[in-house]
Specification:
Layout: E1 9-12, E2 17-24, E3 31-38, E4 50-57, E5 80-86, E6 92-100, E7 113-120, E8 123-131, E9 147-156, E10 163-168, E11 174-179, E12 184-191, E13 207-215, E14 222-227, E15 234-239, E16 243-248, H1 258-265, E17 266-271, H2 285-288, E18 296-302, E19 309-315, E20 321-332, H3 335-341, E21 346-359, E22 363-368, E23 374-379, E24 384-388, E25 394-398, E26 406-411, H4 421-424, E27 430-434, E28 438-442, E29 451-452, E30 467-468, H5 470-509, H6 514-526
Antiparallel strand pairs: 1-28, 2-3, 3-4, 4-5, 6-7, 7-8, 8-9, 10-11, 11-12, 12-13, 14-15, 15-16, 16-17, 18-19, 19-20, 20-21, 22-23, 23-24, 24-25, 26-27, 27-28, 29-30
Length: 540
């Protein structure tokens, strides 16, 4: 299998990975978080089922101090705190992260609250990632194990639901869970507990979860579900039935039966196709008009903050994958629609404006970067593709990054510099995972912006020495080459002394003719002429 070229790198993991989330929020969170989940399942394989959370903080974070390597330079491991959550006999296959700033009336700790939503079987569980005060040992070093995850809420959906996706809305008061049975479940989140007098405390350590909507419409397993970037009442979901649905919770009717409510909440159903519209029409019926289960819409995303652009990626169980771009347009209503709707002359709907093949294999994971400029795609052949959303051309392609199909991928959450990148000198564009027990950190850079200290016994983020800054590199090079400088200087001074001793008489006899001195230095001091004994022939 192909090997990732540096500075892209792989990180071995103890478990096969089936869910991945990469999160940061610079205005609230002075760090970034990587959470991944997986395991060996309920069988006795010896591989546990866990959720792992890595919190990478900056070197100058005043709320936490970490051990430093030689010359005061931190390695990435020094800046990373890890948390492991045991999920028992079930595998967590869905993750999402919510970060809320601490209220101004809180205690001296200004740490934001980090909430981790996890889909495990038929359960949605919420964990609070807590940071305790840092304790010091006898050597003055800080204890790095001061983070922990505490379960603060849980809700069970109907049996055989099988949660595949979870996602927070923009305000943090609701979750959406996409299920294996095709349901899209809306869960309200209320922080705090209600007291006996009816008052509700706003404690971040307690919350209540309630199922408020069970949206039915998909007839196959839901693969992806995401909320609108700004509107907490609008969301979209895609499934293995070949469709992507846009839902508007603000259109919910009161005192209506469940089917009418679902029909009312579904704003639009997008039919996704797996052939090139610019080429000849396919002859195979399963491609031209696929039945449910023959076209798998593995990923969907809102393409801008206003939700006017949508992306879907779909494929069959074999063959290439296609990316569709949908844009919100206004069109005139037909006469039938005007009679039915009683009034409106125009309607807004999403229209497919582009469809192109993006992979020769089915795409199994998709992620959109936080600045909406890049799509990261992982396919069943273990390959990773970065696409520009401006031109929809390939930015970078990694062939066979994984040994098995890519199960999840996370594009860069924000274009800003992230904590720890000043130590590694590498700007990671995407992180991918698979059941091959490794994470791939992928970058478009050709090389790190930092240099490695040669011969160091420390360990850096990329292996093989501690990564140091430019000033430290210059100091190390000066120390290494200092003896060589002395030797060269001594040789030059010796040559000058010999030249003065040997060529002084020629200089005086030639009446200060510098050409004579030059000939003397070249052919007498530095090297001899070929007719001098012992030069052209070995003397007997």
């Amino acid at each position: 299998m192909p090997v990732l070229q540096s500075p892209s790198r792989t990180q071995p993991t103890a478990i096969p990975i089936f869910a991945l989330k990469w999160y940061t929020h610079p205005s609230v969170l002075p760090m970034h978080i990587l959470a991944y989940a997986g395991g060996g399942g309920s069988a006795k394989t010896g591989i546990g089922n866990t959720v792992n959370v890595q919190i990478i903080t900056s070197d100058d974070d005043t709320n936490s101090s970490y051990n430093h390597g030689s010359d005061g330079v931190s390695s990435l491991e020094d800046l990373t705190a890890s948390i492991a959550i045991d999920t028992g006999i079930d595998i967590a296959v869905a993750l999402d992260i919510l970060v809320q700033s601490a209220p101004s009336s809180s205690s001296s700790s200004s740490r934001p609250y980090i909430y981790l939503a996890v889909g495990i079987g038929n359960f949605v569980k919420i964990y609070l990632i807590k940071n305790h005060s840092i304790s010091h040992d006898d050597n003055g070093d800080n204890d790095n194990d001061h983070w922990e995850a505490v379960e603060i809420g849980s809700i069970e959906l109907e049996k055989s639901s099988g949660i595949n996706t979870v996602s927070w809305n923009s305000t943090g008061d609701a979750l959406v869970a996409g299920c294996e049975n095709g349901n899209v479940c809306i869960i309200s989140v209320t922080f705090g507990n209600e007291s006996s007098c009816g008052m509700r405390s706003q404690s971040p350590l307690q919350l209540q979860l309630h199922l408020v909507h069970e949206l039915k419409g998909h007839i196959r397993a839901v693969c992806c579900s995401v909320y609108h970037p700004k509107n907490p009442l609008v969301l979209m979901s895609s499934a293995k039935d070949g469709t992507c649905r846009i839902w508007n919770l603000g259109m919910a009717k009161q005192n209506e039966n469940e089917n009418d409510e679902n029909d009312n909440l579904c704003m639009e159903e997008l039919q996704c196709r797996i052939y090139d519209p610019k080429g000849p029409a396919p002859k195979a019926a399963n491609i031209l008009n696929p039945k449910p289960g023959q076209c798998l819409v593995r990923g969907c995303a809102f393409g801008d903050l206003d939700g006017r652009i949508l992306y879907t990626v779909q494929s069959g169980r074999k063959g290439g994958a296609f990316l569709s771009v949908w844009k919100l347009i206004r069109r005139a209503c037909t006469i039938e629609e005007q009679e039915q709707e009683k009034g409106p002359k125009f309607v807004f709907e999403f229209k497919e404006t582009m469809r192109k093949q993006v992979s020769n294999f089915p795409v199994s994971a998709m992620s959109l970067s936080g600045d909406y400029t890049m799509l990261a795609l992982g396919d069943t052949n273990g390959c990773i593709t970065l696409l520009s959303t401006a031109t929809f051309q390939k930015i970078k392609f990694w062939d066979g990054a994984h040994d098995l199909p890519v199960t999840c991928i996370a594009a860069r959450p924000l274009p800003l510099s992230l904590s720890g990148e000043d130590v590694t000198g590498v700007r990671v564009d995407a992180i991918s995972a698979s059941a091959d027990n490794k994470l791939c950190y992928l970058t478009r850079q050709r090389k790190s912006t930092l240099k490695k200290k040669q011969g160091s016994g420390g360990s850096g983020s990329g292996g093989g020495g501690v990564l140091v800054g430019a000033k430290s590199s210059k100091r190390v090079l000066t120390i290494v080459f200092y003896p060589i400088h002395l030797i060269v200087f001594a040789m030059i001074m010796y040559a000058i002394k010999v030249s003065v001793d040997v060529c002084h008489e020629d200089y005086e006899e030639s009446h200060h003719d510098w050409m004579a001195v030059k000939e003397c230095v070249l052919h007498t001091v530095l090297w001899a002429t070929s007719d001098r004994p012992g030069i052209a022939f070995i003397p007997h």
